[in-house]
Structure formats: C-alpha cells, structure tokens
Amino acid sequence: MDIVRAFRVVSIAEATSFLILLLIAMPLKYGADLPVAVKVMGPIHGILFIGYVGLAFIVGEKLGWGLKRTVLALAAAVLPVAPYFVERHWAKPVGAAGAEPQPAGRA
To answer: Which UniProt key words apply to this protein (predicted)?
Structure first.
C-alpha cells in the first residue's frame, strides 16, 4: 500500500476513534458506570494517534508540505474532526486529479 494511502486510512481511523471515545466511550464510562468502554477504545485510539503523527511526518515530506502545513496537520491530531480535513484536502498524491503539488516551504 502506498504510504499516502496508508496515511489517509489512518487519518480517518484516528478521527473516528477519537469521536467514538468522546461521544460513546466517555458517556458510557461516566454515565453508565462502564469504564471498560474507555479501557478498550483508549489504547486503540492511542495507537492510531501515534501512527497518524508518524505518518504525517513521512507523508508531509513526500508531498512537499512546508513546516506550517506539517505543524497544522500534527495539530489536527488533537482536534476531534480535523484529521478528516487533512485526509480530504491535503493528503492527495502528487499529480492526482485536482491536487496541485505544493512547493517546499508553502502551506
């Protein structure tokens, strides 16, 4: 699998796991006294988060992201739905339809 495609998959999975953790697991933990929901989803989300961050560096270099875009993509990892934006708008293979390669240093 191409590294950009892997990043796109991990971006979607990371954002989705974050939403599940916030909207389902946390209310189950505190509202229904079921801490097992967070015990299951927490580590899954943690692994996806680490994968997202690592792949963001690799893909950023491959796609010619500048420092600003790379930092914004990393910051997106701590916002619940921001990785969806990164996946949809920034993680396009160079030369893909509608995707213009970004010169180095530009975000």
So the answer is: Cell membrane, Membrane, Transmembrane, Transmembrane helix
